[in-house]
Amino acid sequence: MTTTFTGETRALIAGQFISTSSTFAVTNPYTGLEVARVADCGVSEAKTALEASTAAFTWWSKTTAYERAALLRKFFNLILRDEAEIASMIALEMGKPVSEALGEVRYAAGFVDWYAEEAKRVYGQTIPSQFAHKRLFAISQPVGAVYAVTPWNFPAAMVTRKLAPALAAGCTIVLKPAEQSPLTALKLATLWLEAGGHGDVFQVITTNDPVAVSKVFMEDDRIRKITFTGSTEVGKILTKQASDTLKRVSMELGGHAPYLVFADADIEQAVKDVITCKFRNAGQTCVCTNRVYVQRSIVDEFTQKLGEAVAQLKIGDPLESSTQIGPVVDSAGLEKIKRHVQDAVQKGATVVTGGAVQSGLVFQPTVLGNVSGEMLILQEETFGPVAPIIAFDTELEAISAANNTPFGLAAYLWTKDISRAMRVAERLEYGIIGLNDAVPSTVQAPFGGVKQSGYGREGGHWGLEEYLFTKFISFGMEQ
Ligand code: NAD
Protein backbone atom coordinates (compact mmCIF):
# COMPACT_ATOMS: atom_id res chain seq x y z
CA MET A 1 0.00 0.00 0.00
CA THR A 2 1.39 3.40 -1.01
CA THR A 3 1.64 6.20 1.47
CA THR A 4 2.91 8.73 -1.04
CA PHE A 5 0.77 10.04 -3.85
CA THR A 6 1.69 9.56 -7.48
CA GLY A 7 -1.67 10.19 -9.17
CA GLU A 8 -3.16 13.14 -11.06
CA THR A 9 -2.97 16.56 -9.39
CA ARG A 10 -3.96 18.81 -12.32
CA ALA A 11 -7.50 20.00 -12.98
CA LEU A 12 -9.51 18.56 -15.88
CA ILE A 13 -10.71 21.60 -17.82
CA ALA A 14 -12.00 21.81 -21.39
CA GLY A 15 -10.84 18.34 -22.36
CA GLN A 16 -7.42 18.19 -20.78
CA PHE A 17 -5.55 18.13 -17.52
CA ILE A 18 -4.08 21.56 -16.89
CA SER A 19 -1.55 22.93 -14.41
CA THR A 20 -2.01 26.28 -12.72
CA SER A 21 0.58 28.78 -11.51
CA SER A 22 -0.45 28.24 -7.91
CA THR A 23 -1.25 25.00 -6.10
CA PHE A 24 -2.65 24.04 -2.72
CA ALA A 25 -1.68 21.26 -0.33
CA VAL A 26 -3.62 18.11 0.43
CA THR A 27 -2.65 16.82 3.86
CA ASN A 28 -2.86 13.36 5.39
CA PRO A 29 -4.91 14.04 8.53
CA TYR A 30 -3.32 11.13 10.39
CA THR A 31 0.34 12.10 9.91
CA GLY A 32 -0.16 15.81 9.28
CA LEU A 33 2.16 15.46 6.29
CA GLU A 34 1.57 16.92 2.86
CA VAL A 35 0.42 14.25 0.41
CA ALA A 36 0.25 16.25 -2.81
CA ARG A 37 -0.11 19.73 -4.25
CA VAL A 38 -3.12 20.24 -6.47
CA ALA A 39 -3.98 22.80 -9.17
CA ASP A 40 -5.53 25.88 -7.58
CA CYS A 41 -7.97 27.06 -10.22
CA GLY A 42 -9.45 30.53 -10.20
CA VAL A 43 -11.98 32.61 -12.07
CA SER A 44 -10.21 32.26 -15.41
CA GLU A 45 -10.24 28.43 -15.30
CA ALA A 46 -13.85 28.53 -14.12
CA LYS A 47 -14.84 30.60 -17.15
CA THR A 48 -13.04 28.20 -19.48
CA ALA A 49 -14.78 25.23 -17.87
CA LEU A 50 -18.14 26.95 -18.13
CA GLU A 51 -17.71 27.64 -21.86
CA ALA A 52 -16.55 24.06 -22.48
CA SER A 53 -19.42 22.58 -20.51
CA THR A 54 -22.11 24.55 -22.30
CA ALA A 55 -20.54 23.86 -25.71
CA ALA A 56 -20.27 20.13 -25.00
CA PHE A 57 -23.91 19.98 -23.95
CA THR A 58 -24.99 20.67 -27.54
CA TRP A 59 -23.59 17.35 -28.77
CA TRP A 60 -23.56 15.25 -25.59
CA SER A 61 -27.28 15.78 -25.04
CA LYS A 62 -27.89 14.36 -28.54
CA THR A 63 -26.05 11.07 -27.92
CA THR A 64 -28.30 8.08 -27.46
CA ALA A 65 -29.00 6.62 -24.06
CA TYR A 66 -27.36 3.42 -25.32
CA GLU A 67 -24.12 5.25 -26.14
CA ARG A 68 -24.07 6.92 -22.75
CA ALA A 69 -24.87 3.64 -21.01
CA ALA A 70 -21.99 1.86 -22.78
CA LEU A 71 -19.56 4.57 -21.71
CA LEU A 72 -20.77 4.55 -18.11
CA ARG A 73 -20.42 0.79 -18.06
CA LYS A 74 -16.74 1.04 -19.10
CA PHE A 75 -16.22 3.74 -16.49
CA PHE A 76 -17.77 1.46 -13.85
CA ASN A 77 -15.46 -1.43 -14.76
CA LEU A 78 -12.40 0.82 -14.50
CA ILE A 79 -13.42 2.09 -11.07
CA LEU A 80 -13.69 -1.50 -9.88
CA ARG A 81 -10.35 -2.39 -11.50
CA ASP A 82 -8.67 0.36 -9.44
CA GLU A 83 -10.79 0.03 -6.30
CA ALA A 84 -7.88 -0.73 -3.97
CA GLU A 85 -5.88 2.23 -5.25
CA ILE A 86 -8.86 4.58 -4.88
CA ALA A 87 -9.55 3.27 -1.38
CA SER A 88 -5.99 4.08 -0.26
CA MET A 89 -6.29 7.49 -1.88
CA ILE A 90 -9.39 8.19 0.22
CA ALA A 91 -7.61 7.00 3.37
CA LEU A 92 -4.63 9.18 2.53
CA GLU A 93 -6.43 12.42 1.78
CA MET A 94 -9.19 12.42 4.38
CA GLY A 95 -8.43 9.68 6.89
CA LYS A 96 -11.22 7.15 6.35
CA PRO A 97 -10.04 3.65 7.40
CA VAL A 98 -9.04 1.88 4.21
CA SER A 99 -11.27 -1.16 4.65
CA GLU A 100 -14.25 1.19 5.00
CA ALA A 101 -12.99 3.28 2.06
CA LEU A 102 -13.09 0.16 -0.10
CA GLY A 103 -16.77 -0.17 0.76
CA GLU A 104 -17.25 3.44 -0.27
CA VAL A 105 -15.56 2.86 -3.64
CA ARG A 106 -17.88 -0.08 -4.37
CA TYR A 107 -20.88 1.97 -3.31
CA ALA A 108 -19.64 4.82 -5.55
CA ALA A 109 -19.16 2.45 -8.49
CA GLY A 110 -22.67 1.12 -7.86
CA PHE A 111 -24.17 4.48 -8.87
CA VAL A 112 -22.33 4.36 -12.18
CA ASP A 113 -23.52 0.82 -12.84
CA TRP A 114 -27.12 1.56 -11.86
CA TYR A 115 -27.43 4.75 -13.92
CA ALA A 116 -25.80 3.07 -16.93
CA GLU A 117 -28.86 0.81 -16.88
CA GLU A 118 -31.36 3.51 -15.96
CA ALA A 119 -30.23 5.76 -18.84
CA LYS A 120 -32.16 3.37 -21.11
CA ARG A 121 -35.37 3.68 -19.15
CA VAL A 122 -36.15 7.39 -19.44
CA TYR A 123 -39.68 6.97 -20.76
CA GLY A 124 -42.14 9.63 -21.85
CA GLN A 125 -45.92 9.46 -21.90
CA THR A 126 -48.67 9.90 -24.45
CA ILE A 127 -51.74 11.67 -23.13
CA PRO A 128 -55.22 11.21 -24.64
CA SER A 129 -56.57 14.39 -26.23
CA GLN A 130 -60.19 15.55 -26.35
CA PHE A 131 -59.59 16.63 -29.98
CA ALA A 132 -59.43 14.07 -32.79
CA HIS A 133 -56.68 15.97 -34.63
CA LYS A 134 -54.33 16.31 -31.68
CA ARG A 135 -51.72 14.00 -30.19
CA LEU A 136 -50.20 14.92 -26.83
CA PHE A 137 -46.77 13.84 -25.60
CA ALA A 138 -44.69 14.43 -22.47
CA ILE A 139 -41.00 13.75 -23.06
CA SER A 140 -37.98 14.02 -20.74
CA GLN A 141 -34.91 15.99 -21.72
CA PRO A 142 -31.63 16.78 -19.93
CA VAL A 143 -31.73 20.03 -17.95
CA GLY A 144 -28.43 21.31 -19.35
CA ALA A 145 -24.96 22.05 -18.01
CA VAL A 146 -24.68 21.23 -14.30
CA TYR A 147 -22.42 22.61 -11.56
CA ALA A 148 -21.75 20.12 -8.74
CA VAL A 149 -20.11 20.85 -5.39
CA THR A 150 -19.18 17.96 -3.09
CA PRO A 151 -17.87 17.48 0.48
CA TRP A 152 -14.79 15.64 1.70
CA ASN A 153 -16.45 12.91 3.78
CA PHE A 154 -17.26 10.62 0.82
CA PRO A 155 -14.73 11.72 -1.82
CA ALA A 156 -15.89 9.03 -4.29
CA ALA A 157 -19.55 8.32 -3.52
CA MET A 158 -20.75 11.93 -3.26
CA VAL A 159 -19.19 12.50 -6.68
CA THR A 160 -20.67 9.52 -8.52
CA ARG A 161 -24.10 9.98 -6.89
CA LYS A 162 -24.28 13.23 -8.90
CA LEU A 163 -22.04 12.45 -11.84
CA ALA A 164 -23.61 9.17 -12.94
CA PRO A 165 -27.24 10.34 -13.18
CA ALA A 166 -26.19 13.66 -14.75
CA LEU A 167 -24.22 11.90 -17.48
CA ALA A 168 -26.89 9.23 -17.93
CA ALA A 169 -29.51 11.95 -18.46
CA GLY A 170 -27.36 13.68 -21.12
CA CYS A 171 -26.17 16.61 -19.00
CA THR A 172 -22.61 17.91 -18.88
CA ILE A 173 -21.15 18.49 -15.44
CA VAL A 174 -18.42 20.55 -13.83
CA LEU A 175 -17.43 19.12 -10.46
CA LYS A 176 -15.83 21.17 -7.72
CA PRO A 177 -14.61 18.70 -5.09
CA ALA A 178 -13.86 19.73 -1.50
CA GLU A 179 -10.39 21.21 -1.05
CA GLN A 180 -9.55 18.53 1.55
CA SER A 181 -10.20 15.63 -0.86
CA PRO A 182 -9.62 16.50 -4.54
CA LEU A 183 -7.37 13.52 -5.34
CA THR A 184 -10.12 10.91 -5.56
CA ALA A 185 -12.17 13.20 -7.82
CA LEU A 186 -9.17 13.64 -10.13
CA LYS A 187 -8.63 9.88 -10.19
CA LEU A 188 -12.26 9.43 -11.25
CA ALA A 189 -11.62 11.98 -14.01
CA THR A 190 -8.63 9.99 -15.31
CA LEU A 191 -10.78 6.84 -15.40
CA TRP A 192 -13.55 8.68 -17.24
CA LEU A 193 -11.03 9.68 -19.94
CA GLU A 194 -9.62 6.14 -20.06
CA ALA A 195 -13.14 4.82 -20.58
CA GLY A 196 -13.38 7.05 -23.66
CA GLY A 197 -15.33 9.88 -22.03
CA HIS A 198 -14.73 13.49 -23.05
CA GLY A 199 -13.04 15.89 -20.67
CA ASP A 200 -15.49 18.66 -21.45
CA VAL A 201 -18.55 16.55 -20.69
CA PHE A 202 -17.17 15.87 -17.20
CA GLN A 203 -14.69 18.41 -15.84
CA VAL A 204 -13.06 18.71 -12.42
CA ILE A 205 -12.14 22.16 -11.15
CA THR A 206 -9.95 21.97 -8.07
CA THR A 207 -9.60 25.14 -6.04
CA ASN A 208 -8.75 26.52 -2.66
CA ASP A 209 -11.16 29.39 -3.29
CA PRO A 210 -14.60 27.80 -3.63
CA VAL A 211 -16.37 31.13 -3.21
CA ALA A 212 -14.84 32.89 -6.23
CA VAL A 213 -14.96 29.82 -8.46
CA SER A 214 -18.56 28.97 -7.56
CA LYS A 215 -19.66 32.55 -8.24
CA VAL A 216 -18.70 32.18 -11.91
CA PHE A 217 -21.02 29.20 -12.34
CA MET A 218 -23.79 30.45 -10.08
CA GLU A 219 -24.12 33.79 -11.88
CA ASP A 220 -24.29 32.36 -15.38
CA ASP A 221 -27.62 31.59 -16.98
CA ARG A 222 -26.15 28.76 -19.01
CA ILE A 223 -25.58 26.64 -15.90
CA ARG A 224 -29.07 25.21 -15.50
CA LYS A 225 -28.62 23.24 -12.32
CA ILE A 226 -26.66 23.34 -9.08
CA THR A 227 -26.32 20.12 -7.13
CA PHE A 228 -24.68 20.45 -3.74
CA THR A 229 -23.78 18.13 -0.88
CA GLY A 230 -22.34 19.72 2.23
CA SER A 231 -23.25 21.87 5.18
CA THR A 232 -26.63 23.56 5.57
CA GLU A 233 -24.84 26.89 5.92
CA VAL A 234 -23.20 26.71 2.49
CA GLY A 235 -26.33 25.11 0.99
CA LYS A 236 -28.30 28.21 1.91
CA ILE A 237 -25.72 30.50 0.28
CA LEU A 238 -25.83 28.53 -2.97
CA THR A 239 -29.63 28.35 -2.92
CA LYS A 240 -29.82 32.14 -2.64
CA GLN A 241 -27.31 32.53 -5.46
CA ALA A 242 -29.28 30.10 -7.62
CA SER A 243 -32.41 32.23 -7.31
CA ASP A 244 -30.98 35.03 -9.49
CA THR A 245 -30.92 32.76 -12.53
CA LEU A 246 -33.59 30.34 -11.24
CA LYS A 247 -31.41 27.27 -11.61
CA ARG A 248 -32.74 23.86 -10.71
CA VAL A 249 -31.47 23.10 -7.20
CA SER A 250 -30.65 19.88 -5.32
CA MET A 251 -29.42 20.26 -1.74
CA GLU A 252 -28.08 17.35 0.32
CA LEU A 253 -27.27 19.06 3.61
CA GLY A 254 -26.46 18.39 7.23
CA GLY A 255 -28.19 15.92 9.51
CA HIS A 256 -28.74 15.36 13.22
CA ALA A 257 -29.97 11.79 13.18
CA PRO A 258 -31.85 10.38 16.17
CA TYR A 259 -31.55 6.67 16.99
CA LEU A 260 -34.52 5.41 19.01
CA VAL A 261 -34.20 2.13 20.91
CA PHE A 262 -37.43 0.85 22.45
CA ALA A 263 -37.46 -1.61 25.34
CA ASP A 264 -38.93 -4.29 23.05
CA ALA A 265 -35.95 -4.11 20.65
CA ASP A 266 -33.23 -6.71 20.20
CA ILE A 267 -30.72 -4.93 22.44
CA GLU A 268 -27.63 -6.86 21.29
CA GLN A 269 -28.44 -6.01 17.69
CA ALA A 270 -29.23 -2.38 18.49
CA VAL A 271 -25.84 -2.02 20.23
CA LYS A 272 -24.01 -3.64 17.32
CA ASP A 273 -25.83 -1.44 14.83
CA VAL A 274 -25.32 1.81 16.68
CA ILE A 275 -21.58 1.21 16.35
CA THR A 276 -21.90 0.90 12.59
CA CYS A 277 -24.23 3.87 12.44
CA LYS A 278 -22.26 6.19 14.71
CA PHE A 279 -18.61 5.26 14.41
CA ARG A 280 -18.00 4.66 10.71
CA ASN A 281 -15.80 7.34 9.21
CA ALA A 282 -15.15 8.46 12.82
CA GLY A 283 -18.73 9.72 12.97
CA GLN A 284 -18.31 12.01 9.97
CA THR A 285 -21.27 11.09 7.83
CA CYS A 286 -24.43 13.10 7.40
CA VAL A 287 -26.55 10.06 8.33
CA CYS A 288 -24.50 9.07 11.40
CA THR A 289 -26.67 9.13 14.47
CA ASN A 290 -25.98 12.15 16.63
CA ARG A 291 -28.44 11.30 19.42
CA VAL A 292 -29.16 7.87 20.88
CA TYR A 293 -32.51 7.76 22.72
CA VAL A 294 -33.00 4.62 24.79
CA GLN A 295 -36.13 3.64 26.74
CA ARG A 296 -35.46 4.06 30.44
CA SER A 297 -35.99 0.41 31.47
CA ILE A 298 -33.07 -0.72 29.28
CA VAL A 299 -30.86 2.37 29.29
CA ASP A 300 -28.35 1.06 31.88
CA GLU A 301 -27.90 -2.29 30.15
CA PHE A 302 -27.66 -0.62 26.74
CA THR A 303 -25.14 1.98 27.94
CA GLN A 304 -22.92 -0.61 29.60
CA LYS A 305 -22.92 -2.89 26.55
CA LEU A 306 -22.28 -0.03 24.14
CA GLY A 307 -19.47 1.32 26.32
CA GLU A 308 -17.76 -2.09 26.41
CA ALA A 309 -18.07 -2.60 22.67
CA VAL A 310 -16.89 0.92 21.77
CA ALA A 311 -13.83 0.57 24.03
CA GLN A 312 -12.77 -2.36 21.82
CA LEU A 313 -12.71 -0.36 18.56
CA LYS A 314 -9.26 -0.30 17.03
CA ILE A 315 -7.83 3.18 16.68
CA GLY A 316 -4.97 3.79 14.28
CA ASP A 317 -3.54 4.65 10.88
CA PRO A 318 -6.34 4.66 8.29
CA LEU A 319 -4.01 2.95 5.85
CA GLU A 320 -3.89 -0.18 8.09
CA SER A 321 -6.59 -2.64 7.12
CA SER A 322 -7.47 -3.44 10.76
CA THR A 323 -8.10 0.21 11.74
CA GLN A 324 -11.70 1.05 12.68
CA ILE A 325 -11.27 4.60 13.96
CA GLY A 326 -8.98 7.05 12.20
CA PRO A 327 -8.51 10.80 12.52
CA VAL A 328 -11.14 13.42 11.86
CA VAL A 329 -10.55 15.50 8.79
CA ASP A 330 -9.08 18.69 10.24
CA SER A 331 -8.51 20.73 13.38
CA ALA A 332 -11.79 22.66 12.98
CA GLY A 333 -13.64 19.33 13.06
CA LEU A 334 -11.68 18.22 16.12
CA GLU A 335 -12.33 21.47 17.98
CA LYS A 336 -16.09 21.12 17.45
CA ILE A 337 -16.04 17.58 18.88
CA LYS A 338 -14.02 18.70 21.91
CA ARG A 339 -16.40 21.61 22.46
CA HIS A 340 -19.44 19.31 22.35
CA VAL A 341 -17.94 16.81 24.79
CA GLN A 342 -16.69 19.46 27.23
CA ASP A 343 -20.05 21.24 27.19
CA ALA A 344 -21.91 17.97 27.84
CA VAL A 345 -19.62 16.99 30.72
CA GLN A 346 -19.87 20.46 32.29
CA LYS A 347 -23.66 20.16 32.17
CA GLY A 348 -23.71 16.77 33.87
CA ALA A 349 -23.04 14.07 31.26
CA THR A 350 -20.90 11.10 32.30
CA VAL A 351 -18.08 9.72 30.15
CA VAL A 352 -18.74 6.00 29.76
CA THR A 353 -15.71 5.47 27.53
CA GLY A 354 -13.29 7.69 25.58
CA GLY A 355 -13.86 11.41 25.96
CA ALA A 356 -10.48 12.80 24.91
CA VAL A 357 -8.08 13.32 22.04
CA GLN A 358 -5.97 10.19 21.49
CA SER A 359 -3.27 11.92 19.45
CA GLY A 360 -3.11 14.43 16.61
CA LEU A 361 -6.54 14.60 14.97
CA VAL A 362 -7.74 11.30 16.44
CA PHE A 363 -10.56 11.60 18.96
CA GLN A 364 -11.25 8.50 21.06
CA PRO A 365 -14.52 6.74 20.25
CA THR A 366 -16.73 8.04 23.02
CA VAL A 367 -19.98 7.15 24.75
CA LEU A 368 -21.64 9.76 26.98
CA GLY A 369 -24.35 8.83 29.47
CA ASN A 370 -26.92 10.99 31.26
CA VAL A 371 -27.20 13.44 28.37
CA SER A 372 -29.98 16.01 28.37
CA GLY A 373 -31.66 18.56 26.11
CA GLU A 374 -29.77 21.75 26.90
CA MET A 375 -26.40 20.27 25.85
CA LEU A 376 -24.87 21.48 22.58
CA ILE A 377 -24.39 17.93 21.36
CA LEU A 378 -28.18 17.54 21.16
CA GLN A 379 -28.57 20.71 19.16
CA GLU A 380 -25.79 20.64 16.54
CA GLU A 381 -24.30 18.05 14.21
CA THR A 382 -21.12 16.83 16.00
CA PHE A 383 -19.50 15.07 13.04
CA GLY A 384 -17.29 12.99 15.32
CA PRO A 385 -17.07 9.62 17.10
CA VAL A 386 -19.25 10.52 20.08
CA ALA A 387 -22.48 8.72 20.99
CA PRO A 388 -24.61 10.63 23.54
CA ILE A 389 -27.25 8.50 25.28
CA ILE A 390 -30.52 10.02 26.44
CA ALA A 391 -33.19 8.12 28.39
CA PHE A 392 -36.86 8.43 27.44
CA ASP A 393 -40.09 7.06 28.89
CA THR A 394 -42.87 7.08 26.31
CA GLU A 395 -43.16 6.65 22.56
CA LEU A 396 -44.61 10.15 22.17
CA GLU A 397 -41.75 11.66 24.13
CA ALA A 398 -39.23 9.87 21.90
CA ILE A 399 -40.90 11.05 18.69
CA SER A 400 -41.15 14.59 19.94
CA ALA A 401 -37.47 14.67 21.00
CA ALA A 402 -36.41 13.12 17.68
CA ASN A 403 -38.31 15.75 15.70
CA ASN A 404 -37.14 18.65 17.86
CA THR A 405 -34.47 19.85 15.41
CA PRO A 406 -34.32 21.97 12.26
CA PHE A 407 -32.75 18.98 10.47
CA GLY A 408 -34.51 16.04 8.83
CA LEU A 409 -32.15 13.74 6.97
CA ALA A 410 -32.02 10.26 8.56
CA ALA A 411 -33.61 8.72 11.65
CA TYR A 412 -33.41 5.20 13.07
CA LEU A 413 -35.63 3.13 15.30
CA TRP A 414 -35.29 -0.24 16.92
CA THR A 415 -38.38 -2.19 17.97
CA LYS A 416 -39.98 -5.60 17.45
CA ASP A 417 -43.51 -4.23 17.75
CA ILE A 418 -44.73 -4.00 14.15
CA SER A 419 -47.46 -1.45 14.83
CA ARG A 420 -45.08 0.80 16.72
CA ALA A 421 -42.52 0.41 13.92
CA MET A 422 -44.89 1.80 11.31
CA ARG A 423 -46.47 4.36 13.61
CA VAL A 424 -43.13 5.87 14.63
CA ALA A 425 -41.61 5.65 11.14
CA GLU A 426 -44.52 7.65 9.75
CA ARG A 427 -44.30 10.32 12.44
CA LEU A 428 -40.58 10.96 12.21
CA GLU A 429 -39.99 14.11 10.13
CA TYR A 430 -37.08 12.71 8.16
CA GLY A 431 -36.31 11.82 4.54
CA ILE A 432 -34.75 8.44 5.40
CA ILE A 433 -35.78 5.95 8.08
CA GLY A 434 -33.66 3.00 9.18
CA LEU A 435 -36.16 0.63 10.76
CA ASN A 436 -34.07 -1.97 12.57
CA ASP A 437 -31.45 -1.01 9.97
CA ALA A 438 -28.35 1.11 10.63
CA VAL A 439 -27.26 1.46 7.00
CA PRO A 440 -30.28 2.22 4.83
CA SER A 441 -28.39 4.03 2.01
CA THR A 442 -28.27 2.09 -1.24
CA VAL A 443 -27.91 3.14 -4.87
CA GLN A 444 -31.42 2.22 -6.03
CA ALA A 445 -33.28 4.00 -3.21
CA PRO A 446 -34.07 7.71 -2.72
CA PHE A 447 -31.61 9.55 -0.48
CA GLY A 448 -32.32 13.06 0.79
CA GLY A 449 -33.76 15.16 3.54
CA VAL A 450 -36.57 17.43 4.61
CA LYS A 451 -36.51 20.67 6.65
CA GLN A 452 -33.00 22.19 6.76
CA SER A 453 -31.41 18.97 5.52
CA GLY A 454 -32.37 20.10 2.03
CA TYR A 455 -34.41 18.93 -0.91
CA GLY A 456 -34.07 16.81 -4.00
CA ARG A 457 -33.28 13.12 -4.00
CA GLU A 458 -30.23 11.14 -5.09
CA GLY A 459 -30.29 7.45 -5.96
CA GLY A 460 -32.79 5.35 -7.88
CA HIS A 461 -35.01 6.81 -10.59
CA TRP A 462 -35.56 9.85 -8.34
CA GLY A 463 -31.88 10.72 -8.74
CA LEU A 464 -32.15 10.70 -12.54
CA GLU A 465 -35.28 12.87 -12.56
CA GLU A 466 -33.27 15.64 -10.88
CA TYR A 467 -31.37 16.02 -14.18
CA LEU A 468 -34.38 15.88 -16.49
CA PHE A 469 -37.18 18.28 -17.29
CA THR A 470 -40.54 17.43 -18.77
CA LYS A 471 -41.38 18.87 -22.16
CA PHE A 472 -44.96 18.79 -23.37
CA ILE A 473 -45.52 18.48 -27.12
CA SER A 474 -48.98 19.13 -28.47
CA PHE A 475 -49.14 17.88 -32.05
CA GLY A 476 -51.91 19.04 -34.36
CA MET A 477 -52.24 16.70 -37.36
CA GLU A 478 -53.86 17.06 -40.73
CA GLN A 479 -56.95 14.86 -40.81
P1 NAD B 1 -19.03 22.42 3.51
O1 NAD B 1 -20.39 22.93 3.26
O2 NAD B 1 -18.11 23.23 4.32
O3 NAD B 1 -18.29 22.18 2.13
C1 NAD B 1 -18.88 21.43 1.10
C2 NAD B 1 -18.39 21.96 -0.23
O4 NAD B 1 -18.81 23.31 -0.39
C3 NAD B 1 -16.89 21.95 -0.42
O5 NAD B 1 -16.62 21.54 -1.74
C4 NAD B 1 -16.50 23.41 -0.23
O6 NAD B 1 -15.36 23.77 -0.95
C5 NAD B 1 -17.72 24.11 -0.81
N1 NAD B 1 -17.95 25.47 -0.31
C6 NAD B 1 -17.71 25.94 0.92
N2 NAD B 1 -18.11 27.23 1.00
C7 NAD B 1 -18.62 27.56 -0.21
C8 NAD B 1 -19.21 28.73 -0.75
N3 NAD B 1 -19.38 29.83 -0.02
N4 NAD B 1 -19.63 28.71 -2.04
C9 NAD B 1 -19.50 27.59 -2.78
N5 NAD B 1 -18.95 26.45 -2.32
C10 NAD B 1 -18.52 26.43 -1.05
O7 NAD B 1 -19.24 20.97 4.11
P2 NAD B 1 -18.13 19.89 4.49
O8 NAD B 1 -17.52 20.29 5.77
O9 NAD B 1 -17.21 19.61 3.35
O10 NAD B 1 -19.03 18.58 4.65
C11 NAD B 1 -19.67 18.26 5.83
C12 NAD B 1 -21.15 18.59 5.75
O11 NAD B 1 -21.73 17.93 4.64
C13 NAD B 1 -21.91 18.08 6.95
O12 NAD B 1 -22.83 19.05 7.38
C14 NAD B 1 -22.64 16.86 6.42
O13 NAD B 1 -23.81 16.53 7.13
C15 NAD B 1 -22.92 17.27 5.02
N6 NAD B 1 -23.16 16.10 4.17
C16 NAD B 1 -24.44 15.88 3.71
C17 NAD B 1 -24.70 14.77 2.92
C18 NAD B 1 -26.08 14.50 2.41
O14 NAD B 1 -26.21 13.70 1.50
N7 NAD B 1 -27.12 15.13 2.92
C19 NAD B 1 -23.66 13.88 2.61
C20 NAD B 1 -22.39 14.13 3.09
C21 NAD B 1 -22.16 15.27 3.87
Can you describe this structure?
This protein is α/β, with parallel strands linked by helices and 479 residues long. It has two domains: 11-253 and 453-473, Aldehyde Dehydrogenase, Chain A, domain 1, CATH 3.40.605; 257-442, 3-Layer(aba) Sandwich (Aldehyde Dehydrogenase, Chain A, domain 2), CATH 3.40.309. The chain has helices at 43-60, 65-81, 83-94, 98-118, 157-169, 182-194, 210-219, 232-245, 267-279, 299-311, 331-346, 395-403, 418-427, 460-465; strands at residues 11-13, 16-18, 23-27, 34-39, 125-127, 134-142, 145-149, 173-176, 202-204, 223-229, 248-252, 257-261, 289-295, 350-353, 357-359, 362-363, 366-369, 386-392, 407-408, 410-414, 432-435, 450-451, 454-455, 468-476. A seven-stranded mixed sheet has the order 14-17-18-13-12-20-21, sandwiched between helices. Strands 9-8-7-10-11-23 form a six-stranded mixed sheet, with helices on both faces. α2 (65-81) crosses α6 and α3 runs antiparallel to α6 (182-194). Bound molecules: nicotinamide-adenine-dinucleotide.
The overall average pLDDT, rounded, is 97
Which CATH first-tier class of the largest domain would you pick? Alpha Beta
Distance between the termini: 72 Å
Bound molecules: nicotinamide-adenine-dinucleotide
**Strand neighbour order, sheet with most strands:** 14-17-18-13-12-20-21
CATH architecture field of the largest domain:
3-Layer(aba) Sandwich
Shape: globular
Which regions have little confidence, pLDDT < 50, spanning 5+ residues? Answer: none
E-strand count: 24
Helix-strand makeup class: alpha/beta
Helicity level: 25-40%
**Count of domain modules:** 2
CATH topology of the largest domain: Aldehyde Dehydrogenase, Chain A, domain 1
Using only CA atoms, what is the Rg? 23 Å
The biggest beta sheet reads:
7 strands, mixed
CATH superfamily of the largest domain: Aldehyde Dehydrogenase, Chain A, domain 1
Beta-strand portion reads: 15-25%
Number of helices: 14
